[in-house]
Amino acid sequence: MPPIRNAPLVLLIVVWFATSFPPARRFEGEAFAGDWPQVLGPNRDGKAVGETIVPWTAPPKIRWRVPCGAGYAGVAVTNGKVLLWHRQDEHELLDCLSTEDGQRLWQAKFPAVYRGGVEPDLGPRCVPLVSGEHVFVYGAAGDLSAVSIADGTTLWTRQLRTDYAADDGYFGAGSSPIVFKKNLIVPVGGSDDAGLVAVNTSDGQTRWTAVDQEAAYSSPVKIEIDGQTRIIAALRLQTVMIDPESGKVLSEIDFGKRGPTVIAATPLIEHERMLLTAAYGVGCRMLDMSVKPPKDLWSSSDVISSQYATPVHIGDWLYAITGREDFGTGELLCARWSDGKVTWRQPGFGTAHLIGAGDRVLSQLISGRLELFAADASKFRSLAETELPAGIYRALPALSAGTLYCRRSISSSEGELIAIDLK
User: Fold this and answer.
1) How far are the Cα atoms of 83, 97, 254 from residue 76, in angstroms, in the given order?
2) Inter-residue contact 122 to 157 (CB < 8 Å)
3) Superfamily name and number for 16-24+31-421
4) In the predicted structure, residue 10 carries a pLDDT above the cut 90
5) Which of 211, 263, 382, 410 is 20 to 30 Å apart from 247, CA to CA?
6) DSSP assignment letter at 401
7) Could you tell me which residues come within 8 angstroms of residue 226 by beta carbon, excluding any fewer than 6 positions away?
8) Is the pLDDT confidence value at 185 over 90?
9) pLDDT of residue 33 exceeding 70
10) Is residue 320 classed exposed, middle or buried when 0-12, 13-18 and 19+ CB atoms within 10 A define those classes?
11) What single string gives the DSSP state of each residue in 79-90?
């Protein structure tokens, strides 16, 4: 479906990128080389450490294709398994597929109760989160479940948005949870200071609640401050830094705008600095999070205004999509991390999801074009491009061991997962 003009369009999206090492024995909390266990990769920044994408000279080969239902959730890839989170009729389904041939290894099934908002697609938006032997899935209605990766057994389920009287918002639940030790932290947007809720990974019981804010569509990230791990969560009108053990709010930053607006791009972290960006006249801010209150290093309303695509930071530079898909103003640009100075722009490029790999960036356009370009701050240099099968590509791709997993929407209830060989 085309985006609805003059309504905020946002999808929670995910990029998974990996290297091709053989599987090894798993230990609790350890990811295999080649695993991409959470939204935007191991570090939630859209970058693939140690991965190289070679420019193709002929259209890449499609290895396999699997039909799926509704939703915009990107897949997770772990230890030879692809975790596909989607909806068919009255069920949300977690399918575990083989990376080799797409054959289903197991399926976990849950009631689908989300009835929709602005967007007609009723499927889940959040990326599966792999931690140890579990995978956690968060449905469009705000139901959170823990599933065994080994055999698909459901370990527990919580109806978090129902429990905490959270509103569905424009598109239902769309912020992918984050795990810290035994705390699974979820932007719920509930009442009575339940903007963020932490539950025990073992049994789903609530550990703490914090923040009187509606949830947004941006996913929380980790930051290290003075040797301590903190969680950054961009919510509806505020971005907060919290202690993940207790839920104590350590810093609050006003970011957002009332009215038909959405915060969707995930904060980018580099050491103690943080970049926030949003469309709808909000713009971007670079902050030093090591001081209290956090200090603005630079801000702008017209450098990066991303509707939902998270920028990629490579070296001293940001590669970003700015503008709105529903207005047809998606533009690719390069800007300096330290001060926001723009060195080049590609007007009319379109809205795309970006994956950083070494000195290259892979873009998957919503229209279905793949384009590889150089991470070159001096000028835009396209290295290769190809067209994908017809459809809308709003779910972020996952790249693991040289295979790119792209999810296309054919209609509001029908889609397909495509495995493409980029070796």
Assistant:
1) 5, 10, 32
2) no
3) YVTN repeat-like/Quinoprotein amine dehydrogenase (2.130.10.10)
4) no
5) 263
6) T
7) 290
8) yes
9) no
10) buried
11) TTEEEEEEEETT
3-state secondary structure of 166: coil
DSSP-derived 3-state class of residue 193: coil
What value does the mean pLDDT take over residues 346-355? Answer: 95
**pLDDT score at 272:** 96
Spell out the residues 6+ positions from residue 91 whose beta carbon is closer than 8 angstroms to its own.
109, 110, 111, 112
Rounded distance between C-alpha atoms, residue 241 and residue 77, angstroms? 29
pLDDT tens, position by position, 65-75? 999 999 999 99
Alpha helix stretches (DSSP H) within 140-191: 160-163
pLDDT tens digits, one per residue of 360-384:
999 999 999 999 999 999 999 999 9
Which of 270, 260, 158, 262 has the alpha carbon at shortest distance from 224? 270
Domain ranges in the chain are 16-24+31-421
Q: List, in order, residues 6 or more apart from 76 with CB less than 8 Å away.
A: 14, 16, 36, 37, 38, 82, 83, 127, 128, 129, 130, 135, 398
Q: Taking the CA atoms of the chain, what radius of gyration do you get in angstroms?
A: 19
Tokens representing residue 332 in the block: 């690719």
Q: Three-class SS of residue 286?
A: strand
Contact assessment for residue 263 and residue 281, using Cβ atoms and an 8 Å cutoff:
no
Beta carbons within 8 Å of 172's beta carbon, 6+ residues apart: 114, 116, 117, 125, 140, 141, 142
Maximum Cα interatomic distance, the chain, rounded to a whole number of Å: 57
Q: Where is 230: in which H helix or E strand?
A: strand 228-234
